[in-house]
Amino acid sequence: MSSTYNLEIIYDENEYAVYYPGQTVRGHVELTINSQPLKLRGLSILIKGSAACNYSKDLQAEQEFFMIDREVVESKAEAIELGPGNFTYEFSHRLPRNIPFSVDGTYGNVKYFVQATIDIPWDLYDRKISKPFTVLRYEDLNYMSGMREGREVSIQKQIDSSAWFFSRSSLGLVTIKAQIPRCGFAPGEKINVDVSIDNQTSADIENVLISLQYNENYTAQTPWAKLEEKISNKISETIAEGIKAGYTKKIKESVLVPENSKITSVMFSNVFQISYHVQITAKFRRATIPISIPIYIGSVPLKPEEEGRKVEGIPPLWPPQYSKNGAIKQQDDAQSTASE
Predict the structure, then answer these.
(1) How much is the pTM?
(2) Rg (CA), the chain
(3) What is the mean pLDDT of residues 7-30?
(4) Residue 337 has pLDDT above 50, yes or no
(5) Residue 308 — φ and ψ, nearest 5°?
(6) Is 18 a domain residue?
(7) Are 16 and 107 found together in one domain?
(8) 61-96-68-33 Cα dihedral, nearest 10 degrees
(9) Where in the numbering of this chain does the Arrestin C-terminal-like domain appear (predicted)?
(10) What is the DSSP string of 186-220?
């Protein structure tokens, strides 16, 4: 930072700086002054968590979850002179339970960090250093209501518009029904999908795509309107055979929830949310008919129904094997979150 001093942020007893909601972030700022005395007017420590989105030049939003700003060295008059040596300033903050996990998205992020600012006389700008920490969420589906409930959706489309690029001989009705046995899943599980398609047109359905879609939802509040942007990416897919014109077919397939999938995050942030849905798409030669089923992805899969009935009490905020002395088991999760 400077030849005369060095400023460093260190997290205590947590090598990878990974925390769960409800845990306490502890650490210290270490100021090392080298050979010459140092004059300073102040030293402050900021701990902050926030979500932000920026999906166009004029559309931005930020939601602050917490911000603690504390002066640890303060001089209201003349600057304070510190001699050579090491000076330690501790900080701590207990994380709220209702905060989302750290994530970087296409147009936004959820981030947490500690920042130290030193005010030195005659410097044009304050000197700042910051160090991020990662927040993970642990959501056991067995404690969440509605996760065992199946979902069913259906759609009927009359092929009667030139927008579909059909000839008049292709007019007719397509009915698609789709269902899943439950709506709660965890990474590594398969989602069983039952589809029934009645193709009463004179055009063949070439194939049926069943995919798992990852959604990033951004919201910006302007003075005149609330504007939303949604980005969907396919993360898993199965392709089933098509249906001849005039025929009905039942399809049983499954799609995988990838092991590295983030969990659903829709409750704690207003500006950046993560959701998932299973999409079933009937593909004609020059047109498609999609239908979707929302699902929820948590950290821990549902137990067999008999075992699940015995789950009681307050849901845990972090894994049972999580160690107070560091999130060693969470290192890979933290590194993958930071790199995405």
Answers:
(1) 0.86
(2) 27
(3) 96
(4) no
(5) -65, -30
(6) yes
(7) yes
(8) -110
(9) 170-302
(10) -TT-EEEEEEEEEEESSS-EEEEEEEEEEEEEEEE
